[in-house]
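Late entry, evening session. Most of the bench is empty. Finally got around to the prediction I had been postponing all week. Sequence below, unchanged from the version circulated by S.P.
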Amino acid sequence: MAKKIEELLKEVLIKNLRRANSVECGPETTVEQAVKIMQEHQSGYVVITDRQKVIGVFTEKDLTLYCYFKEPDWSKVLATKFCKIPLRALSLNDSVGAAIDLMHTYEYRHVALIDEKGMLQGIISARAIIRFLAENFPAEVLNLPPRSDQITHSREGG
C-alpha cells in the first residue's frame, strides 16, 4: 500500500534526498564578491562559513530586499551584514517535513544543514524538496490546479 504524503514527510530524512553541493564563502566576503560567487555557481545563495562553521546564508532574496537600494557600494559591505541572526538550521537527520516547516515559517528557500558543532554538512533547497515530492507523488503534483483556491467541478473538455 502506498504511503501518504504526510507519512513520508515525517519518515524520510533530509540525508536521503538528492542535494546539490553547497556554495560557500568566508566571513570577509563582500556583497559584490558573494554575488559573483553565486553567478559562477548559478546559485541563489552562498553559505558564509568560518573554518567550516556556519555563520549564515546570504541569498538572492537578501540581495534584492536589503542590498539593492540600501547599499550603493557592494564592494565595501560584507555579506554577513545581511545574514539572518540567529541562524535557523537543520541536520541531515531531520525529516523533510521539518525542512518544509522551517522554510514555510521563515520564508526560506535554502536551509543550512549543520552537525552538533555547527559545522556545515550541506544545504537543502526548496527545489530539492519539490523534486522529491514530484518523484514520489507525480499524480498529485502534476494534477494540481494552477491556483491553490481553484476547484475543478468537472473534467476539462467535458
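Two things to note before I forget:
The longest strand covers residues 53-59.
The radius of gyration is 18 Å.
Will write this up properly tomorrow.
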